[in-house]
Amino acid sequence: KMDDDDDDIPQLSSHTLAALQEFYLEQQQREGMKTSQGFNQYSVGSIEEDWQLSQFWYSDETASCLANEAVVAAGKGGRIACVSAPSVYQKLKEQDGKDFSVCILEYDRRFSVYGEEFIFYDYNHPLNLPENLLPHSFDIVIADPPYLSEECLQKTAETIKYLTKGKILLCTGAIMEEHAAKHLGVKICRFIPKHSRNLANEFRCYVNYASGLD
């Protein structure tokens, strides 16, 4: 009788099993890298992507380029807000000691490890922000709305317009160009942002000021 019961247990194919073992091995290696000496908690990828939250991290080069652009745009002693753009925030923090300040507005509470600079943010409630986050108090706002929908962009735009003194750097799909112009008055740049994993949708940057991304 026991033998009959065993037949009902689903068996993984050797291919699936191998893929699973490879995944766990990679995960162990990543964890090992994190615990090894010199691990940087701000490096892009130090917090894993969560695809269920529509998270896709920028490549290291793209994150660096956008971070450098933000520093120049913010100016000396400038304030930078990263809205749903944690990879740019991480790159900015790698430049610790430079003359600027930065905060991260993010739905994913794992980023609360960054302390007081983390602000919980849900785009469905665009102006549900802490009282100490004063209107028009950031020299530049970098935003990457999590979804390619006009509703998501429109709500995120409310947050952006509340926070910024004027300068906006938006990263979203090429298909959002018309909506981006309508809700934020931004224009597409020549710079093409890349992600650590290839996305199906073409991605672009948009700005409303003379930037170094053209």
TrEMBL record:
One of its GO terms (biological process) is methylation. This is EFMT1 methyltransferase. Keywords: Cytoplasm, Methyltransferase, Transferase. It is found in: Cytoplasm. SUPFAM superfamilies: S-adenosyl-L-methionine-dependent methyltransferases (SSF53335). It comes from Chroicocephalus maculipennis (Brown-hooded gull). InterPro entries: DNA_methylase_N6_adenine_CS, Efm5/EEF1AKMT1, Mlase_EEF1AKMT1/ZCCHC4, SAM-dependent_MTases_sf. The gene is Eef1akmt1. Its main location: cytoplasm. One of its GO terms (molecular function) is nucleic acid binding. Coiled coil: none annotated. It catalyses: L-lysyl-[protein] + 3 S-adenosyl-L-methionine = N(6),N(6),N(6)-trimethyl-L-lysyl-[protein] + 3 S-adenosyl-L-homocysteine + 3 H(+). GO terms for cellular component: cytoplasm. Pfam families: N6-adenineMlase.
